[in-house]
Amino acid sequence: MTPGCRGPATLPKAFRWLWAASGVSAFGDGVHLAALPLLAASVTRDPVVISVVAAATRVPWLLFGLIGGALVDRWDRRRTLWISDAARAALLLAAVAGVCAGLIGVPLLIALALLLCIGQILYDTAASAYLPELLDRDTELLKRANTRLQGTQTAVNGFLGPPAGAAMFSLGRAVPLLADALTFLFSALTIRSLPRTPPKPATEKGPLLAEARAGAAYLVRNPVLLGLSLRPAVGNLAFGAGTAVFVLFAQEELRLGPTGYGLLLATEAVGGLAGAALAGRLADRIGIGGALTLSAFLLVGAQLALGLSDGPGAAGAAIVVRAAAFGITMVLGPSVRQAIVPNDLMGRVSAAARLMAVAPAPLGALLGGWLATEAGLRAPYLIGAAVLAVATLGSMAMTTNRKIDAALARASPAPRPSSPTAP
Predict the structure, then answer these.
(1) In whole angstroms, what is the distance from residue 342 CA to residue 350 CA?
(2) Is the pTM of this model over 0.70?
C-alpha cells in the first residue's frame, strides 16, 4: 500500500507477533513500576534518596541516547530488539540473586535502574525505527499499529502490572523482579522468531558521534519534529517531579497501603486505553495538531487536580484524565514522526526525540524530592501544572494542523486528505 493512502490493507503477521511480545514485556514493566518504588521505600524513607533512584531510570538517556540511536541505524533492528530484552532478563535474574542474598540497598537499586535504562534505550529506539520499516511508512497503518501498541501497553502496564507487582512484593521482594525477567525472556524469544529483515545496503560509515549529531540536527531543523519533542520535554520535567515522590504522596497524603497504591497506579490504564482508542477519531475530527493541543491542556488540568486531591477517588479521577491525554499524544506524535523521517535516519531521529523528551526527567525527579522536602508532598504537582501550562502555550504554534499536514505531504508524493484546519 502506498504510504499515506487509505485502504483495506491489514497489519502483517509479523506485527502481531511484535505486538504480543510488546504486551508481555509491558506487563513486566508494570510489575516493576509498582515494585521498584516499594522496594526503595522499604530501604529508605528519605524523599531525596528515593528521587535519586527515580532519576537513575532516566540518566542514561543523557549519556547514551544519541549514540544508541546511531548504533540502531547501523545494526539490524530485529536483532537489536531481542538481544536488548535478553540482556535485561539476565540483569534482572542477577538482581533476584542479589536480593535473595540480602545485598539489596540503594546502590544496587541505582545500578539496576541505570542498566535497565540502557537496555530500554536500545529496545525503544530499535522498535520505533523497526515499525515504519515493517509497515512501509504507511501513515494510516502506523496510526493503527501505534493505537494497538499504546492501548495494550496501557492495559497491561497500567491496569494489570501494578496491582500484580504490589501483590508479588507482599510475597517477597525478589518475586516481582523474577516475574519481570521472565517477561523479557518471552519477548526476546518471540522477536527472535520473526522473519529476518533484508540486510542494509553497505554504506561508508563515518564517526559514530558525527552520525548521532546528524540525527539531532535533522530533528532541530524540522519545526514539526522539534515541536513534537519540546512539549514532552517540559512535560517530563513536571511529571518527573511528581512521579519521584508519588509513592510517598499515596502513602502519606492519601493514606494508602501497598495494595491501594498499586490499584491507584492501575487507574491510569482506564484513561490510557480511552485516549489510545480515541486518538485516531479525534485526529480525524479536529486534526492531529488540534488533538495534540487538546491533550496538552488536559494534562495541565489533570496535574493540578492531582496535586489538590484530598482522597484516592479524586486522585484516581485526575490520573484517568491525565492518562487519556497522554494516550492521545503517544499514538499521534510517534505516528507523525515515523511517517516523515527517512528510514536511514529513523533510529537517530527517534533517539534524539526521546533524548529531548526524557532528558529533563532526572532533573524533575531531583526537583520533586527537593520540593517535597521544602514545601510538602503536594508542591511537585502544583508547580508542575504551572510549568506544563507555560510549555503548552509556547509550543502550540509549532504543531498546528496546517504544519503537520504539510510535513506529511512532503514525505510522500501520494495525495493526502487534509485534516480540519483550526481557525
Answers:
(1) 11
(2) no
